[in-house]
Specification:
The protein is built from 5 helices and 8 strands. By secondary structure, it is an alpha+beta fold. α1 (76-91) packs antiparallel against α2.
Amino acid sequence: MRIELRNLAGKRIGHVEAEASARPARVSLVPTSAHTEKADVYLRWDEAIDDAGALRRCVICGCDELYVRKNMPQVTPFIILLAFIGAVVAALGLANHPAAIVLLILLLVVDVATLFVARRRLHCYRCRATYLGAHIARYMRPWDRAIAERMRLARPEEFEPLPTVITGAVPMQPSTKDSV
């Protein structure tokens, strides 16, 4: 599986390759830009995989709040524009020509094919990591505003600090309840 890492602002900083069956503890970050340095990322596999082999926790930050999103190919906006043009052609009555009918049928086939090409990805609410090629369980749900708001408003002391590789900043300070 491929894990795309993002900083807290949501900008991609790189990706790592990890085989879920091997469960490596440490993998090398492949930086996206020259501004990101090569580093090692430590993965947290404890309780991350369920009995069916599907990912149920983020292996980067350990968060158990993940959501599924379909990733459409980059050609989708172009196909939507062509479909709109095809609808206008049909509405104007110009679709009676055999070439126009063939082009509209071809557009329909390409449009349906993009739906089958679109892949589902897992995303972490907390660290914004994206999992490609991971086995996705049926119980994973799409993005939910309530969970996103709860994760955004959560106090930092409720969670372990994110690795510095991901945040690109100094780790969070320990809370006062940890020092007592």
